[in-house]
Design brief:
The protein is an alpha+beta fold. The chain has 39 helices and twelve strands. Strands 5-9-8-7-6-12-11-10 form an eight-stranded antiparallel β-sheet, with helices on one face. The chain has a two-stranded antiparallel ribbon with strand order 1-2. A hairpin with an 8-residue loop joins strand 1 and strand 2.
């Protein structure tokens, strides 16, 4: 009995099989459909579950058991689907949603081509496509269009014949889908565009001929009409949204227009000649020329402001006092849009579309259309373009054939013999009158006027930049207008070349640049940046700067003005340095992308002057002193980069910190004879690490000993001194709370600390020394960078070579040093490096450094220092010991200056602790007086039980320990006081003698 059931098609019909993925289960579901062919409120839930299970079993069978599809096709189960869809009973829509979902899942997941052919073979799929669903139901509409899109993904040269019937000239998949190209739901429109592109990609001549002859003209015409209607809506939104209250609606409209252009570009990029010809013809005649381009010249006609237009927008768009040169708002009933909207949309067209026949026509019409042809209509305009194009091609061929004629040679000889003044006039060429009698180009040039604001100028610049960089436009159209022109003065030599450029446009750009460098200008940074980009393209040819001298002078003046403007914000506060580095890092990450700029709907609104609008800083006017300083910094960077580019130089002074010359993590460092401060780093999570603290000119470095080489260490954490915060611990004098911020990078304002931990030192002396060194190191690092900025800005009194902050000359780099220059001393070398590392010497104390001695002679005449020191010495109970010590120093200093004949002992001049103080010997006393940077003040006697090295005190003078220690507590470690007080003491002893 079991064997009979397993082999029967209807086996399992009397009971639900336990295995859902089996042929028996499909047979069971087939029986369910057979018994419930009429949809009702009672069985619709059962039918929905049955349809879902059928799709699941078929997908499983496609990959595991071919008999599943055999049964499905033998029983013609798709006919059940059709029967269910055609019913109008209650609950049919509910079941249709599941049915369409089942079909969508089924066709989306089938991988076996044979199974796919089986499903498409009986033409049931086309019957489902043409079925009249209730599209008022949103779910039905969504699953239906998704089903059609899934089918289009299966199209190829083999499956196309299941959908397109060549004999009946019928293609329901395509014809039914394009009916929804203008559906109000965005996802439906996107699905239709995807489906049409999938259809166009199929290489089938008969199918493409059907599309061209039967559907292309009406479909492309409807697309042009729909885009035009959409643009009218966008234009009205710009008129009424001057207060930036409803930016979301405007953003949606701009995004929709971009989707249209990308869809058109995708069709054109398929390179289907017949389709491209039909599409280009409809776009030129019905959309781009009559609506986009003619709106540029519509301000020449008399028009009135429509009712309901926001007056704030009208004030910006319409300049009644400045004549016809400014953009104006147009009546939407006239079929035109405002000039600024037309410029913005045309910029998008040239930035996205690159089909040469289309963009070539548009560029020629904008740049070269004469006013005599303007009023004769679109057809006449295009005919004139075709005529001029043919004449140009003929003239080029004639010139090529007659290049060796005597007349050509005579002309070349005349060009060679002209004077320099005539050459300059030729360089200007007809560019001074380039916009005369050319209404569209005249409008673009007029929009470059920034005397009041840069609202229209930004769009005009975007359009010019887009045309100049469109790959579909040949050089003969834009040469001498948007690109430099190169001509040979002699046919025999290619060295004598004459360059020329559009002087009129360059002067317009230079005026914008000059105005942008004024303190009270209303030109946004984005307008300046795109002006500079366009200028460089106009005046650089073959890598050479062909800018005329008067124009070069204008650029240099503008750069000087930008420097003068930034000097007004140059301050010693820390925020200026952080702002300077932040803006440079943000600008260096990426340059201006004009295509992305034209995707932003915010620039269509009047220039805002507040960050509350959410508009990017470079796309609006600055607000407050802080943003004005940011603008001045960016302005300086832009002008500096432009001047360097024009001169062919490379930036060598920025950024302020050269990361390549800084110490990196896990880098091995030579720490022999280097000043190290041992500490324990206590992290917030409770982890402890023993490290050695090293302080460079720029960096704070935490190192651990290198196990492979004695005297070497490995950097485990590196941070810049300028980014640290140091605070003491009130409860423990040996602890410091140190926070190291990450270096400034990008536009992020939330800087997560690189390290925030407690540093525990061996004693309070080392803790104070570390705190003072870190504090002074931070201050010096920032001062050096501020001095470097001052040199960049040519502030008087700030001349000289770049500071170590820029060159990265720190402890690990080799550099020329002088013993009298504290800023330029080596740390990681075997030689002496006062203040950072002091080599240990076994000799008598009391010998002074020559630099300290010269400084004491220089500063020892101060009566106030001498009198104060006398009071301190007289008040000291160990005055006799001090006098003895000073006598020994006097005797030592009176000897010969030769180092060979004098005892040697390091006498550090700054706050750093010598290496020998850290490596303490047992039962010795540490003389810390000249190592700690504290203010001079009398201190009480303190008995130090901690041992020190043998080189710090005389082995035979143990009885003087108390006196020496008291002297050490009196003398400050600050460099400016060490030499002074020692010199005063020596002078006092001389008087006593």
């Amino acid at each position: 009995m079991k064997m009979f059931r397993s082999r029967s098609w209807f086996g399992g019909g009397w009971g639900r099989p336990k295995n859902p993925h089996s042929l028996e289960h499909l047979k069971y579901l087939y029986n369910v459909l057979s018994r419930n062919q009429t949809v009702s409120e009672h069985n619709r839930e059962l039918l929905v579950e049955t349809l879902r299970s059928i799709a699941e079993i078929l997908i499983w069978g496609d990959q595991n058991d071919s008999s599943v599809f055999d049964f499905f096709l033998e029983k013609n189960m798709l006919s059940f689907f059709l029967r269910i869809m055609r019913q109008r009973s209650g609950g049919s829509n509910y079941v249709c949603v599941q049915l369409l979902q089942t079909l969508n899942i089924l066709f989306e997941n089938i991988r076996n081509e044979t199974s796919l052919y089986y499903l498409l073979s009986n033409n049931h799929v086309n019957s489902i496509i043409v079925h009249k669903f209730d599209f008022s139901n949103e779910e039905v509409m969504a699953y239906y269009i998704s089903f059609l899109k899934t089918l289009s993904l299966k199209l190829n040269a083999h499956t196309i014949h299941f959908f397109y019937n060549e004999h009946t000239n019928d293609f329901p998949l395509y014809t039914e889908a394009i009916k929804f190209f203008n559906h109000p739901e965005t996802m439906v429109r996107i699905a239709v565009r995807t489906l049409t592109l999938n259809v166009y990609k199929v290489d089938d001549s008969s199918m493409l001929a059907f599309i061209r002859d039967r559907t292309a003209a009406p479909y492309f015409s409807n697309i042009a009409w729909f885009i035009g209607k959409h643009i009218q809506e966008l234009d009205m939104c710009v008129r009424n949204e001057a207060d930036h209250h409803s930016q979301n609606r405007l953003a949606d409209l701009v995004a929709e227009h971009l989707d249209h252009l990308h869809y058109i570009n995708d069709i054109l990029c398929l390179n289907i000649t017949d389709l491209n010809h039909v599409l280009t013809d409809h776009l030129l005649h019905k959309l781009l020329i009559p609506l986009y381009i003619y709106s540029l010249a519509s301000h020449r006609r008399k028009s009135s402001l429509p009712e309901g237009v926001n007056q704030a927008v009208a004030k910006i768009l319409t300049k009644t006092s400045s004549g016809p040169d400014s953009p104006r708002v147009q009546d939407p009933l006239s079929g035109r849009v405002s000039c600024v909207v037309a410029l913005f949309l045309l910029s998008q067209v040239f930035l996205i579309l690159s089909h040469s026949p289309l963009v070539q026509s548009l560029a020629w019409i904008i740049l070269k259309t004469d006013s005599t042809v303007l009023d004769k209509g679109v057809n006449t305009l295009l005919e004139h373009y075709e005529t001029e194009k043919k004449l140009l091609e003929d003239s080029l061929s004639d010139e090529a054939s007659a290049v060796n004629s005597s007349s050509k040679e005579a002309l070349l000889e005349d060009l060679i013999n002209i004077t320099d003044e005539e050459k300059e006039k030729l360089a200007k060429n007809p560019s001074e009158n380039v916009a005369m009698h050319k209404p569209f180009l005249e409008t673009v040039y007029s929009a470059l006027d920034c005397s009041e604001n840069d609202y229209g100028a930004l769009f005009a610049l975007c359009l010019l930049y887009a045309m100049a960089n469109n790959k579909g436009i040949t050089s003969d159209v834009i040469e001498q207008v948007l690109k430099p022109k190169k001509s040979f003065m002699s046919k025999s030599s290619s060295k004598d070349i004459k360059y020329s450029y559009n002087v009129y446009l360059v002067e317009k750009l230079l005026l914008i640049i000059s105005l942008a460098c004024q303190p009270t200008c209303r030109i946004r940074l984005v307008t300046l940046e795109i002006s500079l980009k366009l200028l460089l393209q106009l005046v650089i040819c073959d890598g050479k700067n062909i800018l005329l001298e008067p124009h070069r002078a204008v650029i240099e003046t503008a750069k000087s003005q930008s420097m003068a403007l930034l000097r007004n914000f140059y301050k010693s506060e820390e925020i200026f340095l952080d702002m300077f580095e932040h803006e440079y890092c943000d600008m260096s990450k990426s340059s201006l992308n004009v295509e992305w700029l034209c995707m932003d709907s915010a620039i269509l609104l009047p220039p805002a002057g507040t960050p509350l609008t959410g508009i990017d800083f470079i796309k609006r006017l600055p607000c407050g002193e802080s943003e004005k300083a940011r603008r001045a910094i960016r302005l300086f960077f832009l002008m500096r980069n432009t001047v360097l580019t024009l001169s062919g130089e490379i930036e060598t002074q920025l950024p302020l910190t050269n990361p390549q010359s800084c110490v990196q993590i896990e880098q091995a460092l030579d720490l022999n004879n280097s000043d190290l401060i041992a500490c324990t780093v206590l992290y917030k999570d409770g982890m402890k690490m023993r490290r050695f603290l090293v302080i460079d000119v720029l960096q704070l470095i935490l190192v651990e000993p290198d196990n492979k080489r004695l005297g070497w260490g490995v950097a485990k954490l590196v941070g810049f001194l300028q980014d640290i915060e140091v605070t003491g611990d009130k409860d423990d004098s040996r602890c410091l709370h140190i926070t190291i911020h990450r270096p400034i990078s990008g536009a992020t304002t939330n800087r997560v600390p690189l390290l925030s931990a407690k540093f525990l030192f061996d004693d309070n002396i080392r803790c104070m020394a570390a705190k003072q060194r870190l504090t002074k190191g931070r201050m010096k690092a920032r001062q050096k960078k501020m001095q470097h900025i001052a040199r960049l800005l040519e502030i008087p009194g700030q001349s000289g070579p770049p500071s170590p902050a820029f060159t990265g000359q720190g402890l690990y780099t080799c550099r020329a040093t002088g013993r009298n220059l504290r800023e330029n001393r080596q740390l990681f070398t075997a030689g002496r490096a006062p203040g950072f590392a002091a080599p240990k010497r076994e000799s008598s104390p009391g010998v002074l450094h020559r630099a300290d001695e010269s400084r004491r002679h220089r500063d020892g005449d101060s009566p106030h220092r001498l009198s104060n020191l006398r009071k301190e010495l007289s008040a000291s109970p160990s005055n006799n010991n001090v006098k003895k010590e000073t006598r020994s120093r006097e005797a030592s200093s009176s000897r010969t200056k030769s180092r060979e004949g004098s005892p040697k002992m390091p006498r550090p001049r700054s706050e750093e602790i010598p290496l020998e103080l850290i490596k303490k010997a047992s039962h010795s006393i540490i003389d810390m007086a000249p190592k700690i940077n504290i203010l001079p003040r009398p201190q009480s006697v303190k008995t130090e039980s901690e041992p020190c090295t043998s080189g710090l005190i005389n082995d035979n003078a143990q009885s003087k320990e108390s006196g020496v220690l008291k002297e050490a507590t009196i003398i400050s470690e600050e460099t400016s006081f060490i030499g002074d007080r020692q010199s005063d003491k020596r002078g006092e002893e001389r008087e006593a003698v």
